[in-house]
From TrEMBL:
It comes from the Bacteria. This is DUF4625 domain-containing protein. Residues 1-19 form the signal peptide. It comes from Aureibacter tunicatorum. Keywords: Signal. InterPro entries: DUF4625.
Length: 152
């Protein structure tokens, strides 16, 4: 009887360990919401854009396993000497929630043209993309190194 009890307990323990490992492996393999192939450039493919010029922004958005894509947000901001967010000059800070071609998709290629104001500050601008899925999850390029430089 003791042998049967020990054998039963060993089987239960093994099953618990194996199912735990399987769920961790499944979680590790789960597809996550992501942004890739981000490019910000002028019409000649360089990163310098003149005042009054146009920035071309391209990126790929991929939905995760949890939900389809919903909308994206583009922000281009400079790096003020003060280091304060409230002192940043933003060329664009716009949410594209009305873009129905993006909502509900698993993958999307995005191409936007952003006009640089004649009054924009000269210098480097950080390009930030935020993608949000229908479950409210988000991913961004805040830590990325994509920049454009506004020149005269």
């Amino acid at each position: 009887m003791k042998k049967l009890f020990k054998l039963s307990m060993a089987l239960i323990f093994s099953a618990a360990v194996l199912s735990s490992c399987e769920s961790e492996e499944e979680e590790a393999l789960a597809k996550k919401l992501s942004i890739s192939n981000l490019v910000a450039e002028n019409h000649d493919g360089g990163n310098e854009v003149s005042l009054g010029g146009t920035i071309h922004i391209d990126f790929e958005a991929q939905a995760g396993d949890e939900a389809n894509l919903d909308y994206y947000h583009i922000e281009l901001h400079d790096h003020p000497e003060s280091g304060l967010i409230e002192d940043e000059y933003r060329i664009i800070d716009k949410t594209f929630m009305e873009k129905s071609t993006f909502k509900g998709l698993k993958n999307a290629s995005v191409h936007e043209h952003i006009k640089v104001a004649d009054t924009a500050n000269l210098g480097a601008y950080h390009v930030v993309i935020v993608v949000v899925d229908e479950a409210g999850n988000s991913v961004d390029t805040e830590d990325g190194d994509v920049e454009i430089v506004v020149v005269k």
